[in-house]
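Quick check before the chapter quiz. The format below is the same one you will see on the exam, so make sure you can read both the input and the output lines.
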Amino acid sequence: MELQFHPASRRGTVRTVALGRRGEAAVLAAAGCAALAAVSLWVTVPFVCVRAARAERSAEIAAVSAEVRKGWSDLTARAHNVKERALDDGDFVSRIGFLYGIPTSPWPRSLNPEAGVLASDDPDGVVRGLVRYASGLDRALALVTEKEAAAPALAAETPSRLPLSTDLVEPASRFGPRTSPWTGGEEFYPGVDLAAPAGSPVVAPADGVVAFAGQISAEVHGRLWRFGNLVVLSHGPAGATLYGHLGKIEARSGQTVRRGARLGTVGASGWALFPALHYEVWRRGGDGLKPTDPRFAMLDLRLPGHDVSLEKMLATSAPGALEAPPGVR
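Here is the expected output.
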């Protein structure tokens, strides 16, 4: 085999190289390797490029998916916050409706927790529920406004705030059935005990007239004498409130007071183990005065759980007759 090398210029001399058998074998082997390398590159390069493109695409999809998940999580959190605010508004206006004595028949049932209007946590479900819930809020506010227009003094005379001027308050006893810490027997507790530092101001939760200020004489079947220093406010059509275990009485019978006026101080008079205010709220109904859960009349405190409807509040009362606050009819 001969190999000829032609120069670029026509004047150059053509060179000839003669190859023996070994040279021929080497040349053929080199040519074969070159061919194999070309074929390998023809197959491998596209495959590597495809893999690189797929890896890049997968990274893009993963990044987009993470962004979508984050966006959905943020949207769900925002929907939850809006729902909680709406439920707080529903609880608030329902408590006002209860305190104003609005009947259940015209009250929007969409505000009742058992209706489940805002039971969904899905953003789409929350949006659909909010439309109906907002309509119920508008209807409830209209009923409250009508009630206030018909009785201009109602808002001022309705107990609607915590009767203590201190942030250091802790519920010690709650409204409802309990085991008496004194007798060990079952009893219905018609109020709440609010533990607070001795000497903390006790204030009127609404405008009213002092119907009683002093102590009740002990009676075998009585209960009010156990509360020591006692003040009772009459709120006219809105009912009455009672304050017991006072350390000092700062109001007198017959006195007219405004919301926020001092009635006395927190103490431990009567049957009390520690300084606390015993507080009762009595509402007027078709069958006279009845005690109700004072938490409903503390609009500056948020009720947990969103599980109280107007019907439930109206059904919350003592199961039988109780000694009513003195001086109130």
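If your answer matched, good. The chain has a mean pLDDT of 85.
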